[in-house]
Amino acid sequence: MTVLVTGGAGYIGSHIVRAFRLAGLDCVVVDDFSSGHREFVPDDVVLIDSNILDTAVVAKAMVEHRVEAVVHLAGFKYAGVSVQRPLHTYEQNVQGTVSLLQAMHEADVDKVVFSSSAAVYGTPDVELVTEATATAPESPYGESKLIGEWLLRDSARAFPLHHTSLRYFNVVGSAVPDLYDTSPHNLFPLVIEALLEGRTPRINGNDYPTPDGTCVRDYIHVADLADAHVVAAQKLLAGETLEPVYNLGSGDGVSVREIMTAVAEATGIAFEPEIADRRPGDPARIVASGELASRDLDWTMRHSVAEMVKSAWDARQAHAG
């Protein structure tokens, strides 16, 4: 069986490709390298240099390589930047998903796992987010992910389409030394790059209504996330019906200050983080329950925070210099 992974040259996508290969499934990657890296894709994996907006190229790839399912990760993933670039965000994430679904329809591929986001919830007013929590996205990015879920739902009403969407928030760590997070906006790479450059990492706000005053977030290891995508795709390929959405959450948040402490311990670099102003729109706490995904997708947190931090540091160190 062959699975098409859009955005498969990115940090998360490349981990998912490796996980599929370990599970014995072949992959085809479509990526335009706007944020992905050619070197993240194994040499023996078919790699197509294209944006998913090119419907004809994607449909042709599905037919030529006998693709039976799609894992859709390609898109513009920077929530903060999406506020300044709403049209670009909607083009890449909404129109891109329309194009992909059209290509799937043309190629008679009827199974898709969609990479959604906890950003669809905005600032929830509950301690623990579940799939029943109201969606209220606060950025074009979050809105585009919710629209993506709607597109899958509505397409499934019009033609055969078996689908599920996985919502997650802070994906961290590395499963292998040659893959690491290169995002200029995520906490882990921001902290690690600061330490590598001799700068002091920064906390944005320490006056939130949380135990230590810093934001509490849901951090999950990229390897655990990748495994959940593989299970979801395998179940769809086996003809099983999945829920339309699943949260991949820890159920137990970690504060930004606790992450800083874990980084200092993992790296052996003692530091006291600088305190900066809050960033607009940062909620005090977002933590999701993974109970439903645990029931259906064998979802579990197999890595501790210490392991997440150490794996991220070791992978980045392997590419330093």
Automatic annotation (TrEMBL):
Catalytic activity: UDP-alpha-D-glucose = UDP-alpha-D-galactose
Key words of the record: Carbohydrate metabolism, Isomerase, NAD
Signal peptide: none
Entry-linked Pfam families: Epimerase
Source taxon at top rank: Bacteria
Keyword Ribosomal protein: no
Cofactor: NAD(+)
EC nos: 5.1.3.2
Pathway annotation from the record: Carbohydrate metabolism; galactose metabolism
The UniProt record lists the keyword NAD: yes
InterPro entries: Epimerase_deHydtase (IPR001509), NAD(P)-bd_dom_sf (IPR036291), UDP_G4E (IPR005886)
Listed GO biological process terms: galactose catabolic process via UDP-galactose, Leloir pathway
GO molecular function, one term: UDP-glucose 4-epimerase activity
SUPFAM superfamilies: NAD(P)-binding Rossmann-fold domains
Family classification: Belongs to the NAD(P)-dependent epimerase/dehydratase family.
PANTHER family per UniProt: UDP-ARABINOSE 4-EPIMERASE 1 (PTHR43725:SF53), UDP-GLUCOSE 4-EPIMERASE (PTHR43725)
Protein name: UDP-glucose 4-epimerase
Lineage summary: Bacteria, Bacillati, Actinomycetota, Actinomycetes, Propionibacteriales
